[in-house]
Design a protein that fits this description.
Blueprint (H helix, E strand, L loop, with lengths): L1 H14 L14 H9 L15 H4 L10 H87 L9
């Protein structure tokens, strides 16, 4: 329809400009490109679900299309705003949040190393003694009581007669 014509016209216009990036992403300087190629900031793929594009969020069915220029402009504004807002938010929030998360993980690590693990090791060290004492107490008090109850109720017979 009209969208294909618009894309062809745009490509012809863009072919004249060699400085324009055709990757669809933002224009990066050479230093940013080298830094981006060398460093994988998500080596374990923890945020692979965040790889969303315009077509993943906004889609028009076949019978309800907006004007081609509106679609192209909204696509461009979506990508630009996503890029700029992310950069601004990381500029403002990344350092304070990194500080807070660092403090939280340092606190949790300290508590785990100096409180939790020694407590668990102490419990495991004391448990054999507690187990011996507990077994002796149950053998002396609980086992004879339940053996006596068992012998008392062993002589009980229940008959069901149907009348």
């Amino acid at each position: 329809m009209g969208l294909e014509t618009e894309k062809v016209d745009t490509r012809i216009f863009m072919d004249d400009d060699d400085n324009f990036p055709r990757s669809g992403g933002p224009a990066l300087s050479e230093a940013e490109k080298c830094a981006e190629d060398e460093l994988d900031r998500d080596p374990h793929g923890m945020n692979s679900h965040l790889q969303l594009g315009f077509e993943d969020v906004i889609a028009e069915p076949e019978l309800t299309h907006s004007f081609d220029k509106v679609w192209i402009c909204s696509h461009a504004l979506f990508e630009l705003s996503k890029y700029v807002i992310y950069k601004v938010l990381t500029l403002v929030l990344a350092i304070p949040l990194a500080l807070v998360v660092g403090i939280v993980f340092a606190t949790l690590s300290c508590l785990h190393i100096w409180v939790v693990v020694p407590f668990v090791k102490t419990c495991l060290m004391v448990l054999p003694s507690v187990q011996t004492v507990w077994k002796s107490l149950t053998d002396v008090f609980v086992v004879p009581f339940f053996q006596s109850l068992g012998r008392c109720f062993a002589m009980v017979n229940i008959r069901l007669d149907q009348e």
